[in-house]
Amino acid sequence: MANFHLLRGRVSQVDAYYSITAVVRDRRPLLVQGDNAGILRDELQRVTREGTADTLAWVAMPDHLHWLFQLRQGSLGRCLQRFKSRSARAINLGAGSSGPLWQGGYYEHCLRSEEDLRTQARYLVANPLRKGLVTRIEDYPFWWCRWISGATDLV
């Protein structure tokens, strides 16, 4: 169950831009093992194909996901519930396991202007650098951004 404090003040608005963080249950470092990041990428693309959201950027850290998108239809909660459910099923299937993958709830931030999008995208994509996972973003394979192709785009 989601923490009540995460729900306080949450508003879901079609066409709004959101930056969310979803955390793996018990902070297990599962997202960069095997093809789990590929599964996340595929599910994010599926959300876009279905017209629920337009993905602008994402980065899979070992134990959490950052996702920047524009909500296109439905509610924010439903969008995240479907993504988390489908990605958990696919990751569990690949691992031959079962049970919850994600912590309940998620952290979200609604961006107020389109000007903030690229700043937020650069911040998300730079996470592996700040955490010391790589020294060059080009060496980290678990991210994508509409506007960024390498380190020169981070400045």
Structural notes for this entry:
This protein has 155 residues and is an alpha+beta fold. It has one domain: Transposase IS200-like (Alpha-Beta Plaits). The chain is 34% helix and 20% strand.
Q: Can you write the helix and strand succession as a string?
A: HEHEEHEHHE
Count of the separate structural domains: 1
The proportion of strand residues reads 15-25%
Mean pLDDT: 91
Assembly form of the protein: single chain
CATH class, anyone?
Alpha Beta
Walk across the major sheet and give the strand order: 4-1-3-2-5
Share of helix, binned: 25-40%
Shape-level CATH architecture:
2-Layer Sandwich
How would you sum up the global shape? globular
CATH topology: Alpha-Beta Plaits
CATH superfamily: Transposase IS200-like
Summing up helix and strand content along with how strands pair, one would put the structural category as: alpha+beta
Count all strands and give the number.
5
